[in-house]
User: Fold this.
Amino acid sequence: MKNIFIVFLVMAVYTAVGAQKGNYVYFMKTWNFIQYYHPDVASGKKDADSLFLATVGKINEKTDENTIITFLSQNLTHQFPELTVTDNPKEVLAVNQDFKWFQKNKRISPENKQLLNDIYNHRFIAEPGNKDKLSEKKTPEFKKDENLPLAYRMLALAKLQGTIDYLYPHKYLMDKKAEMYFSDWVEQAVRCTSRKDFEIILTKVVAAMEDTHSFKFYNELNEKNEIFHRLYFPPFDYVIKDNYILITELLLPEICSKANIHVGDQITEVNGQSVREIIKQKKELLSASNPETLLYMMSDFQRNLIWPDDQPRKDLKIQSKDHKTYHADTEFVNFTDKQQRAVVTEYIQNKTRRRQHYKIDHQDIAYFKINDVFSLMNNIPDEKLDDHMDAVFKDASSKKAIVFDMRGYPDWGGFVFHYVYKYFSPVENHFGKYYKPNIKNIGTYIPISYKEFGTYYPDLKNKTIHPYKGKVFLIVNPETLSMSEWNTMNLQNVFPQAKTIGQRTAGADGDISIIKLPGNYTLEFTGNGIFYYDNTQTQKVGVKIDEYIKYSDDDMIKKKDLELERVLKGLN
Assistant:
């Protein structure tokens, strides 16, 4: 009888927590709706965070939807002007806007449905160019090892929910079960007892956005080394594939020799866990627009994100180049040894230097590296820059081929936008559609017109055109991110004959938006919708590629440059 009572008690507790979880989620939905639409709150007259914190403590398992609406709206204006907001754009991205959570909810009274509809129909419209007041707020400081109070944990999750619902244009591309997962994460956040556990929940919410702009959120975490098991580094460099880790360089040969590890070996398991399963677990904690970019980002030795535990020795299941399978008991290092640290530091510096200094040097090729085009200015005075760039492109036009290496972030925004356009492009260069937030209806997005100069191309008077008839190659990979993707789309249209070669790009075009979360976390995410002019999606997909270039294990080990080989082949 006693055992039966305990079982019923446990069931009752979990039922109460589950009910409270649902009420918290509904509370967040309602609060976000009010903070983005109600004139009192969206205008900043009343502070949204203060409203949340003053009200969230009243929520329990017995709180129903009507009570939540009353709690949040009772001190706000209920009387609105007769005129409603009119917003009828010719073209709009409105797929994310969904009010079924209250309009189709039978438990909500007709009066409260009318109130929420009135709020929306009389929503606040911000002045163009105004900064988001919410992002400028200061939140209390908390010790880095201290768990946030429940109210602030809920506020952080509510802000993330609001960001996804109202500020993230690509919510519609997220997993269809994301809202169900969010509800579970709210329940976990209610019960979590440590900062580490709460940070894991935050990373899961951000990872669900599947946005490469948000990838580096992991670096905001106080417990990132423990969460991602970054305390020990392998004695080798590597590249992560779908189901194995390829060893590409031995950094500490003595340690590798003791473990019988060689360049070209494939690690298929770590401490009994398959690499495929490890990648799946990491995907739940890291935001990336596509699988290729996730693996590329995790393959960075310095990030050290792939390992599943903090054991200083790991049992690695190895498949050798001659197809033998064995287990390698391998020592990992934490670089307290100065000599080991010096060796690895020098390796990383040399690797970085090689990438920075990479160029294609060929008499028949004009080569432009997008993250090193600022050097073309070479201290040229502003008044002479136009003539200088004309001379640069005139020389490039004399070559058989022009190569734009887009594997990096542009260090000079004006290179493609102004100068490539000025010299090579037709006056009208309709290469993409840039959807900005619709200030008349937050949560929807409208395209910037080509009549507005400054987004797609500059307004140049008496522009001349110098058509280039030679071959053009655009080299891309997951480092082709954001503005680099936008510039690639631009170049593809300026040069219709261009061949885009390489690997899938980061799939995160558009400008970065930023929100601040309680606990001193900053989240960056894609804030604009970017499409090709024919409406082809770029978010998650990346730019259009004519020829995918796939590297074999041997190509990577030998550090081959298959893109260069393809360009040279294309010259003939």
User: Anything to note?
Assistant: The first helix runs from residue 2 to 37.
